[in-house]
Design goal:
Layout (H helix, E strand, L loop, with lengths): L3 E4 L6 E4 L5 E5 L2 H7 L4 E7 L3 E5 L4 E5 L4 E6 L5 E6 L5 E5 L13 E3 L21 H13 L1
Parallel strand pairs: 3-10
Antiparallel strand pairs: 1-2, 2-5, 3-4, 4-9, 6-7, 7-8, 8-9
Length: 146
């Protein structure tokens, strides 16, 4: 299978993400919501060795959002595309909306659901995991299984 193609809104920053993906999750944490201005953000996990920026690397800027995590965005149009963290060693997380085609999996779960906003209703039947230790352990089990 060919690599998935992704890009920012203006198209200056482009990347490739090789299958298989690691997971596809909707994140409701307040950092994701605030960084994207959205009710939640849909992330696809890619093994770091199967990810590469193919154009516009000069436009890629990183914001250190926490001590362990950073978010990559296009400095020309402002699109946030990437998330990486020492807590997820060996992974690059890319926004599902930036990928230009279908991928090898459908959404699997909602994570950090206890932080969800009250003004958006989630109407699917996907599992919902909270920020607590039990929820995070279940989330990691789903990621490890796939």
């Amino acid at each position: 299978m060919d690599a998935y193609q992704g890009r920012c809104l203006c198209g200056r920053l482009r990347y490739e993400a090789g299958p298989p993906t690691l997971f596809f999750a909707h994140c409701h944490c307040h950092w994701c919501r605030e960084a994207h201005g959205a009710a939640f953000v849909s992330w696809v996990g890619i093994a770091s060795e199967r990810f590469r920026v193919v154009a516009g690397e000069d436009f890629l800027k990183w914001y250190q959002s926490t001590e362990q995590s950073r978010r990559g965005f296009c400095s020309a149009c402002g699109t946030t595309l990437f998330f990486s963290s020492t807590l997820c060693f060996g992974e690059m997380h890319v926004t599902r909306s930036s990928l230009r085609s279908s991928i090898d999996r459908e959404p699997q779960l909602h994570c950090f659901y206890d932080q969800h906003v009250s003004w958006a209703v989630v109407g699917d039947s996907l599992p919902r995991y909270d920020t607590n230790a039990e929820g995070l352990a279940k989330y990691r089990t789903v990621k490890a299984r796939d």
